[in-house]
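Same chain as my last thread, 266 residues:
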Amino acid sequence: MTSIALRRPTFRWPDVSLRALRVWQRNRDVYLQLWKSEIIWPVVEPVITLFALGVGLGGLVELESGQPYIEFIAPGLLAVWPMWSASAECGWGSFFRMENQRTYDAIVATPVSVEDVITGEILWGATRGLISATYILVVITAWGLVDSPLAILVLPVTVLTGVMFASISLSYTSVAWSISSLNYFFAVFITPMFWLSGVFFPIERLPEWGQTVAWWIPATHAAEVYRGLTSGNLHWSHLGDIAWMVVVVGIFYALALFSMRRRLVK
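reply #2:
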């Protein structure tokens, strides 16, 4: 009788190296060639939103705390616009490089691993978020909406949030069957995060179930940390916000590595 040996699945450590920085560099070089067209949306829309909602709508809104509405929403923009930048880069941008340009196939034909490609993409998405946050921080500082020098710490925190949103976005991109299918991700996940993360109104105004949902939204915790840094009013709870974001990064970075390897390695 012939015995058949079953092959047990073996655990495989991600093959991530400093070559990921070369992938980041490749995306940076392309951005520097196209920056004039790439920068229009991230520069114009946050200022219009701050003016329209903060100044226009703000004249009709009275917060219970007595805080001017424009001061309330300004730190929140530091959370949601870098979210859009990182998510769009690792959503539409990554899908286009993967399927249309076949950039990933060309890169993995070199000594660069799949994990290096994905890590480099996430780092570049975080960089796009950091560029956006830096610009918005300059704008709200010039507007007189920053009350503490601790606001400079927004930038290193944005690296964490950028990696978080880039990892989440790339996790979905890894299973997207067409570039138009990314509309589901942005409509069902990113847009609700934009409106329900406590950026434009206090979460306490939501019903209890809505507050529970908002707590699970990653952008909520980013907005809370940024409010504390720009106002100088920090609490121990902000360490919990950062810890939650670290957990989300770990989960979705691992998911992006696993799912993209399944898609790219035939």
